[in-house]
Amino acid sequence: MNDMRIAERATSVTESKISAKGVQVYYGDTHAIKDVDVEIDDKTVTAFIGPSGCGKSTFLRTLNRMNDTIDICRVQGDILLDGENIYDPKVDPVQLRAKVGMVFQKPNPFPKSIYDNVAYGPRIHGLAKNKADLDDIVEKSLRRGAIWDEVKDRLDAPGTGLSGGQQQRLCIARAVATEPEVLLMDEPCSALDPIATAQVEELIDDLRTKFSVVIVTHSMQQAARVSQKTAFFHLGNLVEFGETGQIFTNPIDPRTEAYITGRIG
Amino acid sequence: MSNHTSLYTVSDNVRRRNAVEKRFRFYGLTAIAIGIVALIVLLSSVLSNGSGAFQQTYVTLSVHLPADKLDKQGNRDPEEMKSVSTFGYSPLIRDAVVARADELGWVMPEGMKPKDMGALISKEAAAQLRNFVLANPEVVGTTIEIEMLANGRVDGYMKGRVDREFALLDSNIDVEQLDLVDLLIEGGNLEKRFNWAFLTSPDASGQRPEAAGLGVAILGSAYMMLVVLFLALPIGVAASIYLEEFAPTNKWTDLIEVNISNLAAVPSIVFGILGLAIFINFAGLPQSAPIVGGLVLTLMTLPTIIIATRASLKSVPPSIRDAALGVGASKMQAVFHHVLPLAAPGILTGTIIGLAQALGETAPLLLIGMVAFVKEYPSMPPEGFFDPASALPVQVFNWTQRADAGFVERASGAIIVLLVFLIIMNAVAVLLRRRFERRW
Ligand SMILES: Nc1ncnc2c1ncn2[C@@H]1O[C@H](COP(=O)(O)OP(=O)(O)OP(=O)(O)O)[C@@H](O)[C@H]1O
Ligand SMILES: [Mg+2]
Known about the structure:
The complex is a heterodimer. Chain A is an alpha/beta fold. Chain A is built from ten helices and ten strands. In chain A, the strands form two sheets. Chain A has a six-stranded mixed beta sheet with strand order 6-7-8-3-9-10, with helices on both faces. In chain A, α3 packs across α4. The longest helix of chain A is centred in the middle third of the chain and has 14 residues. Chain A starts with 15 loop residues before the first strand and ends in a 5-residue tail after the last helix. Chain B folds into two domains: about 160 residues, no CATH class; about 220 residues, Orthogonal Bundle (MetI-like fold). Chain B is mostly helical. Chain B contains 19 helices and three strands. Chains A and B meet through α2, β6, α3 and α6 of A and α15 and α16 of B. Adenosine-5'-triphosphate binds next to β2 and α1 of chain A.
């Protein structure tokens, strides 16, 4: 797969959704993210790339405050969602996470039925007025997760009984069911075969019309295919951030070039 | 490698390794065999000693109830008939034995007195008869067929524990009395039946093993288990959830953690002393009461439940919590909707094992006075929690202290009952785990 086509999609809407300024993240004494500034645009796919351990997941998790669950993790700097600082003491992370959904690297469906997996978010956020409403949301979300046809006859079956790729698409369906404004995806395709990967990528492109999507990936091709903006991280630093086309064809920093051409990583 | 070795010849190295493995397996099997033999010896000794307690000898006799003795006023008023104590009734029973013996052609041997014939019936029988008459005053003045407990020695004779050789040495029974027993057996007056009274009736005094039962002890143990269940389960689960899911990890939580592990290892008698000092001397709760026993056992069981609950909470994969938080569930919702259901089988198993441990605990109960002789049933809960009661393991302890050999049989019988309860509880634990375990 030497598909280095660059997504030639218009990035006309350049309204900023999330803007991070001077973000530092520490795990105890480890300085995992060093002074990162990033603008994540609305209705855009932003890809985070970089060698293993460079802090992509860490930075992604600061965007919906999933790092709060790690005791030793400290975050400094400002992260604004629609101009509001999400680390403000007044902000309840639960409310934030309803707006900023997340798909994890390893598929992690609840050990409940497929239906309940998707319905859980809408239920706790009170998005459905009645059962029919909820059924609608579940169907719509599963369609968006490109898994509806495979599971529509067994919505009562356990979500953990699906294959790895199906589970991941179920998790995506679960994440979109709560109608988030931003969707964070941490290597969503690392467990998927090329066909499922293609489905998920198509889905990401689709989601872009409604949400702003941030995706962490180890696949240059994938970043090139699905994203409009790309951020390259290295050893906790944001080395380069810009239009995907520019990063892949004409990187400014030598480290970016070395990574893209496979010399570091 | 330069020199070629065939796969068909086993190399020295591999042979040595295989020998070690074989030896290890042998050690393992030996250990298990020793364990099983010990278990079989234990169970068979308890069963052979205790099975007798579930059988009891009853004597059926026609007893005449003379009105002039039992109801002097002649108005059949139970309140007034109460003035006749059990001493008024035992001669009636004695006369009934004598009368039946005469009917069967008994020739009174030299030196035997009617009193010795009456002694074949339990001393408890007079009280039973009195209670029956007070409950049915209209029988006064008639002759009734009534079933009475046989004396412990006669019961032992029926079960093979007592024989003529034994009777020669024993001051409580002699050979002539056993001859009379044989005659009564022929006459169809003696019968051995399943002993429900062993499970339902209260304890009896030292001379009457035949009347002693586990009723009060079973009730007391049940009440204590209720107290433990309703206190230890919610407190233990709440504490574990807090420690495991919400508490920050710092010096204080570390300290608490170490102390919980230490508490689990504290000898149970220490909890008894604590209970005596706090619940009885300080809080002024009554002695021998199931509430105090329950509180002490709750303290003892808490560490077990907390450790088991935390272990099962820990075993729930963190990805489930992430998933719940990721769709915007609060921490509380993540725990109660997703983590707790997955941890439930482990929590239930831990709780039941803790309860089973508490059920068999003796030492702390001795200290808070549960060893007292209790003949009255405690009333229904909640008042019953404050009434004096006994407990199963304490009853075993109590009976083994008594002189009469009949109580050895009772104690072993009580051990069997205790074991049956423990087996039931463990079976319930296994069933619940199967029921709730969802391997998805
Ligand atoms: N929970 C944690 N506790 C302590 N250190 C952590 C923790 N999570 C991550 N780190 C450290 O932070 C740094 C960044 O980790 P992160 O998981 O963000 O890397 P990544 O870029 O996502 O790597 P990968 O591509 O392998 O997923 C690493 O050095 C890692 O060791
Ligand atoms: Mg990562």
